[in-house]
Amino acid sequence: MTDDPIIIMEFDHQSRLRKVRKRLSRRGLDGFLVAGKKNIYYLCGFSGEDSWLLVTAERAILITDFRFQEQAAASLPPECEVSLRTRKSLNAKAAELCREHSLKKIGFEERHLSYGEFYRLKKSLRSRELMPVGELVEELRMIKYPEEIDLLRRSARMTTRVLSLVMKGLTPSLTELDVAGRINIALLRDGGRSAFSPIVATGLRSSQPHAVASHHSIGGGNVLLIDMGAESEAYNSDMTRTFILGDFPRKFKTIYRAVLGAQKKAIRLIRPGVTASSIDGVARRYLEERGYGSYFGHSLGHGVGLEVHERPVISSRSRDVIKKGMVFTVEPGVY
Q1: Per the CB 3.0–4.6 Å rule, which of 37, 61, 125, 312 could disulfide with 54?
Q2: Which residues pair with 210 in a beta bridge?
């Protein structure tokens, strides 16, 4: 079904690790424990579970266990090595490696480490200092490499193909769950999988931005909301579409034009150096001026990459500034 050729993409993990090490040096850190699964994948290409990555000035060591030994050997680049935590917990093995490499001040990802894990790690490290680093890797991930953008385009094309296929097969007797299931199956047949559980909502339920697909029939003459995305080769897409299954009422045409106008306003503003909050603001004001401000209750957009929702955040509270290489959604809505 896919129109895209199979791509074996090789990433420059050495460059990514170099950027991390520069940031560690600026903060006076001699080690960094990466616990976020997507961040580990970004830095070394490993996608297994229950693993951490220890980055030092000279080495990148994946801490994992027997279950992922072969996977690690097949996926890690030459600049990374494996350390098996045989009969040891992650924090015990990490502490052992920190002592072995004489690390004194170690950064950690507070977003990805539970309090219990942090407490056990701190106890194991004894006198060594643990320092939170915030979203150090996530900030790097905001700027996409050209090969990442290629994969994101591939994922978006897959989403478009699958939605078109599913819409052609719609009948009034299908339920929301039927449609969601067809989306999941079609994505698998196209070589990907759902980036998240498809949101399919019809009638009055279509005003719920994150509705859970149900046994409601889509019927005829209803509004149908579909929010779906593909994950293809680890990279995601995110697309929302609203369909009118029957006559298009004048009220809906008015709302559609308002939402489209808000989106176009926002897109015209996008360029390097513009703040994310100002992009959100121009779309929000456009809808407010037309009386729909109170019906637009979420942020305008979000970054897309290894995660469906990542930075930059396009919202009124965001401090992100747009830079070349960022990929993000622009999705105003009236609910």
Answers
A1: 61
A2: none
Homologous superfamily, domain 13-141: Creatinase/prolidase N-terminal domain (3.40.350.10)
* Closest by Cα among 205, 210, 240, 236 to 223: 205
CA neighbor of 315 nearest in space, from 296, 302, 329: 302
| Amino acid 220: pLDDT | 73
Give mean pLDDT, residues 63-79. 95
The mean pLDDT of 265-279, rounded to a whole number, is: 98
* pLDDT per residue as tens digits for the range 279-290: 999 999 999 999
- Which residue, among 99, 88, 10, 97, has the nearest Cα to 61 in the 3D structure? 97
Please say if the pLDDT value at position 130 is more than 80.
Answer: yes
Cα(118)–Cα(110) distance, rounded to whole angstroms?
8
Query: Shortest CA distance to 99 belongs to which of 62, 65, 128, 121?
Result: 128
Average pLDDT over residues 108-116: 95
CB 192 within 8 A of CB 212: no
Confidence of residue 6 (pLDDT cuts 50, 70, 90): low
Q: Coil, strand or helix: which one is 301? A: strand
Q: Does domain 146-314 have CATH number 3.40.1080.10?
A: no
Domain boundaries, the chain: 13-141, 146-314
| 162 C-beta neighbours (distance < 10 Å), count | 27
- Residue 260 burial (10 A CB sphere; 0-12, 13-18, 19+): exposed
C-alpha 212, offset from chain centre: 20
Name which of 275, 324, 323, 280 is nearest 301 in CA terms: 280
Element (H, E) at 101: none
What are the E-state strand segments in the chain?
31-34, 52-56, 60-64, 80-84, 105-108, 129-132, 193-194, 199-202, 223-228, 230-232, 235-236, 239-244, 301-303, 310-314
Q: What is the pTM of this model?
A: 0.92
